[in-house]
Amino acid sequence: MWDDLVDWLLSLGSEYGVDPLVYAVIYVAAAPLFFGSLAWLVRSLRAGRPAALPLASTALFFSAPTLYVFLAGRNLPAWVYGALIGLAVIGTVFAVR
């Protein structure tokens, strides 16, 4: 089972022409940071505190592997470019407000 997991993680990067080890490390490392940011966001919203920074952190860690592929890879579907640009625009508008 462990070998299958390692093979799967290392295969993720090769599909997009990026270093599979770097992609796997970003993919695995971003998960706990995403969930921590999500908890921070929920606590901020429940307490009525500003949510711009926790929201930006959550979005960053959610999209970290895709951002790496966006910057260093190839063969990324067109909808991913649109989604990343859309997230950046929405995040900027929310932060300015």
Q: Layout of SSEs?
A:
Layout: H1 2-14, H2 20-47, H3 52-72, H4 78-96
Helix pairs in contact: 1-2, 2-3, 3-4
What descriptors fit this protein?
97 residues; mainly alpha; 4 helices; 84% helix
What does this protein structure show overall?
The protein is mainly α and 97 residues long. It contains 4 helices and no strands. It has helices at 2-14, 20-47, 52-72, 78-96.
Instruction: Indicate the percent of residues in helices.
Output: over 70%
How much of the residues is beta strand, in percent?
under 5%
Structural class, from helix and strand content? mainly alpha
Number of helices: 4
Between the first and last Cα atoms, what is the distance in angstroms? Answer: 48 Å
What is the C-alpha radius of gyration, as a whole number of Å? 15 Å
Report the strand count: 0
**What is the averaged pLDDT score?**
84
Please trace the helix and strand order, writing H or E for each element.
HHHH
Q: Spans with pLDDT under 50 lasting ≥5 residues?
A: none
Shape: flat
Oligomer: single chain
Query: What characterizes the major β-sheet?
Result: none
Describe the structure concisely.
With 97 residues, the protein is mostly helical.
